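Hey, sorry to bother you again with one of my protein questions. I've been staring at a protein lately and its backbone has me curious. I owe you a coffee for this, so here goes:
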Amino acid sequence: MSEIESDESWRATPLHGQFSIKKIYLKDISFETPNSPHIFHAKWEPEVDVHLHSHSSKFDAGEYEVVLMVTAVVSVDGKTAFIAEAAVAGIFGITGLASDELGPTLGSYCPGILFPYAREFLSDLAIRGGFAPFILAPVNFEKLYREHVSAQFSEQKAQIES
């Protein structure tokens, strides 16, 4: 087990300081059906490809904006049925965290709060686009954040060694 995996800073919730949700909002949304109306005649056995991306920035003293972008590409018989994208953002009040807690909070905990909103927006878009309800499976943002940091660590280590 690596040091990163056993590090206590990986807790999903902030350990110290103050945390609050100031606002959650829809920053951007998109829906495309490039193969309509023909796609509606295809047998509905969808293949789903989901991409997640989040980023954060300091917004004000003690406030951070976190944006979670979720893109779902749904295909049937090798043809794109629809592409649904939602960027859901939140303004979070975060003060008094240790420096090793801020990264996991912004990179894991906050996106986990935003994800149910993105899931709802994407499902609603699919229905309004004439498709069956579309529900994304839960996502382990803590694991994704760990993998991201571990990959960065490995990349930095490789650069130092070369």
User: Anything to note?
Assistant: Residues 14-161 form a domain with the Bacterial Protein-export protein SecB fold (CATH 3.10.420.10). The chain has three helices and four strands. The radius of gyration is 19 Å. Residues 99-128 form the longest helix (30 residues).
